[in-house]
Specification:
Elements: H1 3-14, H2 21-27, E1 32-33, H3 34-41, H4 45-53, E2 61-62, E3 69-71, H5 73-87, H6 92-100, H7 106-135, H8 147-160, H9 164-173, H10 178-200, H11 208-224, H12 230-242, H13 244-250, H14 257-270
Antiparallel strand pairs: 1-3, 2-3
Length: 271
């Protein structure tokens, strides 16, 4: 029995049997509470809540009486796949599309992940070696070439990410120039700055100003990327606070801006 299985078995035995025969039956299948699963996988509880909300990683069971989330070995396998793709810098949206694709083949995907990780490892080794060359005054620009990795990464997305949203995004952005991408990024940054200003003026997330900015954000995404439904928008709001990269980029305008936007979006999507 693996250490993980031993750990799971121990936790199952320590659970209190309560409420009903239903729960007694279910408890035999349960493995870890969300905090335990978070500690075991190195992923925060907040992130697990977000993964549940967007349908990326659902709990094995949610206790009908307490609302407690429980995770099992299948949850671990799913998390393993997610973490592999996160390590390869795939977005959560792309990971969800890949894992939910009817064409998804786990065995082939793992082989591709290994290849991509190998390419990433080789690039890091080149960069480490390049440091020595740079110290000697050599031209080491070739070490920064990441085209092979990006090529295979794009192929993986193309193979597994065949959802309608991905197709719309790919079709709409395929001819975008570097200047176009920069303009879009600047426009998005401007909207985030407006949210920060709104927050600094002590406007509440449900204020008319904040809600008008949410509408502006939704329209901007629809105009430049893909149809941003309320469901997608709600997921983005949660991602702004669950993903540190997004949160740090948004909070450069003012600490707490990402959380403010998330709350404003929640209000907007409940209407």
């Amino acid at each position: 029995m693996t250490n993980a299985n031993q750990y799971f078995s121990k936790k199952v035995l320590t659970l209190t049997l309560r409420h009903s025969v239903y729960f007694c039956c279910e408890v035999m299948k349960l493995k870890m509470l969300i905090k335990e699963f978070a500690d075991f996988t190195g992923v925060s509880v907040r992130t697990l809540h977000y993964y549940d909300e967007i349908g990326l990683l659902l709990p094995a069971v949610v206790d009908r009486y307490t609302g407690y989330r429980f995770y099992d070995e299948n949850s671990l396998l799913r998390m393993q796949e997610i973490l592999f793709y996160r390590e390869l810098d795939f977005s959560l949206k792309s990971i969800g599309e890949i894992l939910s694709s009817p064409n998804y083949d786990k065995s082939k995907a793992l082989t591709e992940q290994k290849h991509l990780l190998t390419l990433k490892k080789e690039r890091l080794e080149r960069l480490i070696s390049a440091i020595d060359g740079a110290v000697k005054g050599e031209n080491v620009m070739k070490a920064f070439d990441n085209s092979e990795f990006e090529k295979h990464k794009a192929e993986a997305k193309e193979k597994w990410g065949k959802t309608d949203a991905y197709k719309e995004y790919a079709e709409r952005t395929k001819d975008y120039s570097k200047q176009k991408w920069n303009e879009i990024a600047e426009g998005m940054d401007h909207i985030m700055a407006e949210f920060a200003l709104c927050m600094k003026k002590d406007e509440s997330p449900n204020s008319a100003k904040a809600q008008s900015l949410v509408k502006m954000l939704q329209n901007y995404i629809t105009e430049n990327y893909y149809l941003c439904t309320n469901e997608i928008l709600a997921g983005l709001g949660q991602m702004y606070v669950a993903d540190e990269r997004f949160m740090n980029n948004i909070d450069k305008h003012a600490d707490g801006t990402a959380a403010f936007i998330c709350e404003a979006i929640e209000v907007y999507c409940r209407k």
